Amino acid sequence: MSHSRNAQYTSFAKLLHWLIALLMPGILALGFYMQDLPFSPGKLELYSWHKWLGVSVFLLALARIGYRLGHPPPVLPAHMNRLERLAAHGGHLVLYALMLGIPLSGWLMSSAKGVQTVWFGVLPLPDLLARDRALGATLAQIHAYLNFAFLGMLLLHTLAALKHQFIDKDGLLARMLPRCAYAAGKRSPQA
Prior knowledge:
Blueprint: H1 11-35, H2 41-70, H3 82-112, E1 118-119, E2 123-124, H4 133-168, H5 179-186
Antiparallel strand pairs: 1-2
């Protein structure tokens, strides 16, 4: 399938996608790692980084959603049936909800536990809830469940991209790759 410029996401959309794609799994891994560490200044520092990065993902996700409202994505390939199109759109909606819901649930949890979030140690964010230990514990569970849902959606999203690349061979993955990677992949070896 040939690609025109219109078949590509914009450079800014790609940047937001890949920033979030790198940050979300990293934050998730950090969250799992720091959970079982003994209480120490080092653990508190990791929690601070986890929260800072979570707020950053939340802001990047808001920017991504706002940008997408004004810049619709390229159309899906014509060969995709109605169920595949619904799955693609539904999967993206769930991913957007998780990109917002996971950091927001963490912020709410921190507020309920009485631990203020200070973005990069400079900008104190307002507590969204009054201190409530029981609510904090419930929000911790919600935060964990949302992260497991994200892992499942990330797996499905990755498998769908690989299906399009290697089974359908419709070039869908190339739409989100940086222009230099896409161009390198289109070059044929010279004899």
